[in-house]
Amino acid sequence: MKLHEIAHARTGDKGDVSNISVIAYDPAHWPLIHDQVTPERVATYFGSFATEDVTRYVLPQLCALNFVIRRALTGGVTRSLALDAHGKCLASVLLDMEIDNAKTRAR
């Protein structure tokens, strides 16, 4: 399944740093999100960020993860020629990630 089937996301930015929060719709899906949406996987999924540039903060009381991605916005809003210098589309791209729900089906 796609991550967007079990979670939604919010984004923010400051300079060249993007924040992406991934929030489970249903607490029952929190373990899948927690276990499968790792900093390494996020860096690999985007393909343009080094793993050390991605920091994950776990917010279990909210069934959410917050990713801080440094050097994500090619210099930031005022320095970038990118079409999405704010990084708003990064959340949409991340929500297209495949999540293995075999553990859920097996229960």
What do you see in this structure?
The chain has 107 residues and is of the alpha+beta class. 25% of the residues lie in helices and 26% in strands. The chain contains 4 helices and 4 strands; from the N terminus they run E-E-H-H-E-E-H-H. It has helices at residues 30-36, 39-46, 88-94, 102-106, and strands at residues 7-14, 17-24, 54-59, 64-69. Strands 1-2-4-3 form a 4-stranded antiparallel sheet. The radius of gyration is 14 Å and the shape is globular. The model is unreliable at 79-85 (pLDDT under 50).
Task: Provide tags for this entry.
single chain, 107 residues, globular
* Helix/strand structural class: alpha+beta
Number of domains: 1
The proportion of strand residues reads 25-35%
- Write down the secondary-structure element order: EEHHEEHH
What is the typical, i.e. mean, pLDDT? 83
Describe the global form: globular
Q: How many strands in all?
A: 4
Question: How many individual helices?
Answer: 4
Tell me the Rg in angstroms: 14 Å
Strands of the widest sheet, in order across it, are 1-2-4-3
N/C terminus separation: 16 Å
Which parts are unreliable, with pLDDT below 50 for 5 consecutive residues or more?
Answer: 79-85
CATH first level: Alpha Beta
Helix content: 25-40%
For the report, how would you describe the main beta sheet? Answer: 4 strands, antiparallel
CATH topology annotation? Alpha-Beta Plaits
CATH architecture: 2-Layer Sandwich
